[in-house]
Amino acid sequence: MTRPITAGVDGTGESLAAVHWAAREAVRRKLPLRVVHAWRYEESLAVADRGTQHGWVSQGVAEAVRAVRERHPELEVTSGVVEGEPAEVLADAGAQAEMLVLGSRGHGPLVGFLLGSVGRQVIAETVRPVVLVRAGDRPEAEAAGRDVVVGQHGGPEDSAAALRFAFEAAAARGATVRAVRAWTLPPVFAYSPGSLKLLDDAGGLEPYEKKALAEALRPWRERFPQVPVAEHVEMGSAGQVLLSLAGRAQLLVVGRRSHRTAVGARVGSVAHGVLHHAECPVAVVPHE
To answer: By its UniProt entry, which InterPro entries does this protein fall under (predicted)?
Structure first.
């Protein structure tokens, strides 16, 4: 079964940017596009009954679809207005999609994304990749010379899903994958220059990290020989290193492990950090 690329729309500028990003990605990957609005009847709007409110929403979805079809007449597009709790509706839609694309409100690099409880819950619970797109996203940002940046950590299996997504995205764009592995010093070495020199003389931690990244990339280089790859190993926190490279990226890809707490579902700290501060679209890919 062919999975569509699904975009959530709610009439806001950021969700419309997400729809257009999803449409371009669907054209690149030769996949259909589905546009979904998660709708709840608002009893507080006394001037409008259920049918009227549904009509307003349906009209907004139809306008978004019309705009996409004008730009991409060759693209197969379907749409739906689904009644229910937004996070549940979007998570269900994402589970049936190749990826789920959502808009995210941004107010500049210092304030970053305003995800809200719905966005956080959807990202944490959806079993497929979720891409967050800012309102200001433009096709020009996908120009040649901008990499698909992906974070890698642990062993080859730990980031396999994120690497697969990054290589597929780069292959569809004719872009370079910039694979990033950040590392920090073990506590025992943190304040001992002498110990660091001994490590360097023995090969050091950085060569070890470079070897680990190369091993993780090897199967994906073989599967996607046409995709150029740049390997980037840097000492520092993963979130900060990824953000330092995001300014010239057309897409930033991170893996995530979600967990539940007393206040609900949460994503990992790296995904949380880049979602709040990266200006390019961010793909959050669940670990397999």
So the answer is: Rossmann-like_a/b/a_fold, Universal_stress_UspA, UspA
